[in-house]
Design brief:
- The chain is α+β, with helices and mostly antiparallel strands.
- The chain contains seven helices and five strands; from the N terminus they run E-H-H-E-E-H-E-H-H-E-H-H.
- The strands form two sheets. Strands 1-2-3 form a three-stranded antiparallel β-sheet, covered by helices on one side. A two-stranded parallel ribbon has the order 4-5.
- A hairpin with a 4-residue loop joins strand 2 and strand 3.
- Helix 3 runs antiparallel to helix 4.
């Protein structure tokens, strides 16, 4: 078994580098692999997604496992902007609602290793801080302070246990 990790744009993987040159020499049908990757990543169009391809060299079979895009990529998609602020402490590129932050936190929770949804929300808020994104109209540091005071416990508890 050989394992390969690629970072591809959702739904737009090609047989060119890095996938083709890595898998071609193994005798696999690279187009089949690319087709499978694109099928599994189409929901992440416009975002870079980590993909793990495990190849059984003997049997010439493969499995594709799709990770989740970065927290920053999910924030950018949610805001419908191109990227975060150049100077995150001086400019703001957008505002996320608490609901949007919770949505992103639920998607990323298993990757973060967060024990609670509240902890995952706090992590997403930290990423918002570095990107120049306000939450609920507040700078992320203020949002985190309010979060720690319990101001958002009710809205977060509504979402605990729901599948993302």
């Amino acid at each position: 078994m050989k394992t390969f990790n690629f970072l591809v744009e959702g739904g737009k993987a090609t047989a060119g580098p890095p996938i083709g040159p890595a898998l071609g020499p193994l005798g696999l049908n690279v187009m089949q692999v690319v087709k499978k990757i694109n099928e599994l990543t189409q929901d992440y169009a416009g975002m870079r997604v980590p993909v793990k391809v495990t190849v059984d060299v003997e049997k010439k079979t493969f499995e594709v496992e799709v990770g989740t895009p970065t927290t920053a990529a999910l924030i950018v998609k949610e805001l419908k902007v191109e990227k975060g602020a150049h100077q995150s402490t001086k400019e703001w590129v957008g505002n996320l609602t608490v609901e949007q932050v919770i949505k992103i936190a639920k998607i990323k929770m298993k990757d973060m290793g967060a024990k609670t949804l509240k902890a995952a929300v706090k992590t997403v808020a930290g990423t918002c801080q570095s990107m120049g994104v306000t939450i609920d109209g507040k700078p992320p540091k203020q949002f985190i302070a309010d979060l720690e005071k319990g101001l958002y416990d009710e809205v977060i508890s509504k979402h605990e246990g729901e599948a993302s």
